[in-house]
Design brief:
- Helices cover 55% and strands 0% of the residues.
- Helix 2 packs antiparallel against helix 3.
Length: 157
């Protein structure tokens, strides 16, 4: 016999209607729709295992959604939580400046920009307080530009 649920989902008529409308429209993200289904089935008294099997999710996911609903409410149970990770080192404006700098003439006595030269110049100009050459490389790789290569349109000759 299954244990009694620690976090029981009891939906008001308004909450149930809101979840059903969300599912009918089908315009929300798939994860949000799955969470809505989990809440509706939980409110019907289905077991975690049954819900998990029916929706092809892990039973722990069902427990987590029920817990979040009980502790934080409907919106918190439906929404994604922020994921961990460092903030980007450069914002869009700073990235644009870096790309423009990489496309400009290299410093006197140099044939082309190096990642370290670009990083040093960004710091020198006060665009950022500090930045590594690896971060510069990753930003330029995203734009498919590579200073010094003739085939990408960045080469300045």
């Amino acid at each position: 016999m299954p244990r009694p649920k620690k976090h029981v989902v009891e939906l008001t008529d308004e909450q149930r209607s809101s979840l059903l409308d969300l599912l009918k429209k089908g315009e929300a993200k798939a994860r949000m729709l799955t969470r809505a289904r989990i809440l509706l089935l939980s409110a019907e008294g289905k077991t975690d295992r049954w819900i998990a099997d029916a929706l092809k999710v892990n039973p722990q996911t069902v427990r987590n959604i029920r817990k979040r609903f009980a502790e934080e409410g409907l919106e918190a149970a439906l929404q994604e939580r922020p994921r961990p990770g460092a903030r980007p080192k450069l914002d869009g404006k700073q990235e644009a400046f870096l790309i423009a700098l990489a496309c400009s003439e290299p410093p006197e006595g140099r044939e082309h920009w190096t990642m370290q030269l670009l990083a040093d110049r960004l710091v020198e100009l006060g665009i950022v307080a500090s930045i590594s050459d690896e971060t510069v490389r990753r930003v330029l790789k995203k734009t498919t530009s590579s200073p010094g290569r003739r085939s990408n349109g960045v080469f300045s000759r």
